[in-house]
Amino acid sequence: QQQVKQSPQSLIVQKGGISIINCAYENTAFDYFPWYQQFPGKGPALLIAIRPDVSEKKEGRFTISFNKSAKQFSLHIMDSQPGDSATYFCAASEYGNKLVFGAGTILRVKS
Amino acid sequence: DAGVTQSPTHLIKTRGQHVTLRCSPISGHKSVSWYQQVLGQGPQFIFQYYEKEERGRGNFPDRFSARQFPNYSSELNVNALLLGDSALYLCASSLRGLAGPYEQYFGPGTRLTVT
User: Fold this and answer.
1) For residue B97, pLDDT beyond 60
2) What is the dihedral of CA A33, A64, A101, B105, to 10 degrees?
3) To pair with B58 at 20 to 30 A between CA atoms, which of A61, B27, B45, B74?
4) Could you tell me if A42 lies within 8 Å of chain B, comparing CB atoms?
5) Which residues contact A79 (CB under 8 A, 6 or more apart)?
6) Residue A13: beta bridge partners?
7) What is the structure's pLDDT at A65?
């Protein structure tokens, strides 16, 4: 019940295209859903996050879509750039406690 | 402002030894969490500390311990190291651990290699 399932495992997108990464959860007590971006040899960097009282949040080229009834959320990267090539992790938590992470998606943006 | 800092950056230890990893949170943040990230996987929660008290513990053996100091910095200790302890150890800092805001900011990590 504590798992967060993330797909796809890897993704190749052309420059300028849309990258879409999906996550699903079971624990209905989760109330915070962040996305992290991680480059090789670095720590995860907080990208964008959403609470379950809204269905969408947009920050620049990054958008989170949230479907509470389906217990799913997704990250959309618009106008993907080679510099976006990294590993992306979704996560979830209850009341700001431990983050439960997905397995990660390796994104490669081809120029 | 400085972000989360961790030391050392890299560490090589032998099986059976112990190790101490250190973390300094973002100034003003009172909560520190530790995560283990094995290569190719997502981070796994180890401990959370808030106001110097343990607020959560993940599914790790008693060989793992941690503490938080009055200045909110933290140490993670691992005893009797096993090969499987080789990983990137991440520290995350947040403003408050019990109620919003919930954002956790990660440091660069300590790469531990056990031989």
Assistant:
1) no
2) -70
3) B27
4) yes
5) A16, A18, A61
6) A109
7) 97
CA separation (Å) from B78 to B6, B51, B107?
A: 16, 22, 19
Cα gap A9→A49, rounded to integer Å: 21
**Amino acid, res. B44:** Q
Whether the CB-CB separation of A50 and A33 falls below 8 Å is answered with yes
> How far off is chain B from A2, nearest CA to CA, in Å?
12
CA angle B55, B99, B54 (to 5 degrees): 10
Average pLDDT of chain A to the nearest whole number: 95
CB contact burial A7-44 (16+ within 10 A = b; e otherwise): beeebebeeeeebbbbbbbeeeebbbbbbbbbeeeebb
Residue B47 token pair:
């401990």
Residue A106 contacts B, CB cutoff 8 Å: no
